Amino acid sequence: MQKVSALSIDNELLKKIEKSNGSAAVLHSYFKHAVNYLHGDEMLAIVSAPIDNAVSTIRVSKENFDKFFLNPSKNIYFTDLGLQINEDWVIDWEETEKWQEEKVIYPKDTRLLAENISLVKENLRKQSKPSWAHEKAVNKNIGSNTFEQAMNRLLYMETEKMFKAIENTPKKVNQLNETKLFGLGKGLTPSGDDILTGTCFVSTIENFPINLSEQQKLWKKTAKEKTNLISATAIYQACHGRGRESMHEFLKAVLFSTEPEVVLNKLEKVLAIGSSSGSEIAWGMIRTIESANKLTHNY
Fold first, then answer.
1. For every residue of the chain, which 3-state class applies, written as one string?
2. What is the pTM of this model?
3. Largest Cα span, the chain
């Protein structure tokens, strides 16, 4: 049996594992840079070195998993030695870095924040990321086929509808509760789910001007019913203020950085999430912050 070192592990996950000695987790999905397992009702991920830290995640010293998991269909077990995978590997985290996300507080003075919002939106639109997030998605046929074009128009309209409802809560609370973004879009985590992940993540900040706690309770339940488990897990964690390290760093930069290059650098790290998920998460985050600023009449 070979040993592979963990580079870092989510500290909250480690606490749960320490209470679960001897229990097994079942394979859910397998990718080049990530393997997802179910442990009871919770999902945990083992990711390769290039991937950033995240909730319920263990990073290991492998560049990819092409030849790592020789038989990923078997269960994994939590043992005194570490995380045992099949009869082939043990992931040892005895001396690894314990990752804990850094919480932030929404600033009282948001004049700087308005500048950073504009910077991010301008940059995303220049890059056409996400491709549907502009009025032209409604007026022009954006997409490689008729289905994609219709989906992009719907994504734009439903996204705008949600943010207008956020800006008019509680007057338009029913529009928030009935959002059609769940499962909308293509990809492993559909675009609509990624937008909701960004929105939920931002709206949990301490002192955030908009209270979406009731919506978050409903959205966590709806996600389980209307989208896949990976997306539903991301939305659930975001509703508790937990996400990827790149999301935390980007949020901190938007809220507090006085240096545009720092904001854009942190944005690029979010954009690296998945094939398109990063741009949609970033759009959900920045538009939610923008909606809060509109409500507080700062610009």
1. CEEEEEEEEEHHHHHHHHCCCCCEEEEEEECCCEEEEEECCEEEEEECCCCCCECCEEEECCCCCCCCCCCCCCCEEEECCEEEECCCEEEECCCCEEECCCCCECCCCCHHHHHHHHHHHHHHHHCCCCCCCCCHHHHCCCCCCHHHHHHHHHHHHHHHHHHHHHHCCCCCHHHHHCCCCCCCCCCCCCHHHHHHHHHHHHHCCECCCCCCHHHHHHHHHHHHHHCCHHHHHHHHHHCCCCCEHHHHHHHHHHHHCCCHHHHHHHHHHHHCCCCCHHHHHHHHHHHHHHHHHHHCCCC
2. 0.93
3. 62
Residues paired with 41 in a beta bridge = none
* Structural Rg of the chain based on CA atoms: 20
Cis peptide before 72 (omega within 30 of 0): no
**CA–CA separation, 273 vs 52, rounded Å?**
9
Question: Using one digit for the tens of pLDDT, what is the confidence trace for 263-284?
Answer: 999 999 999 999 899 999 999 9
Say which residues have a Cβ less than 8 Å from residue 299's Cβ, sequence separation at least 6. 110, 111, 114, 293
C-beta of residue 63 within 8 angstroms of C-beta of residue 20? no
Q: For 78-117, how does the pLDDT look when each residue is reduced to its tens digit (9 = 90+)? A: 877 678 877 777 888 888 899 999 889 999 888 889 999 9
Q: How far is it, in rounded angstroms, from Cα 207 to Cα 193? A: 25
> How far apart are the C-alpha atoms of 152 and 137, rounded to whole Å?
6
Is 12 within 8 Å of 57 (Cβ atoms)?
Answer: no
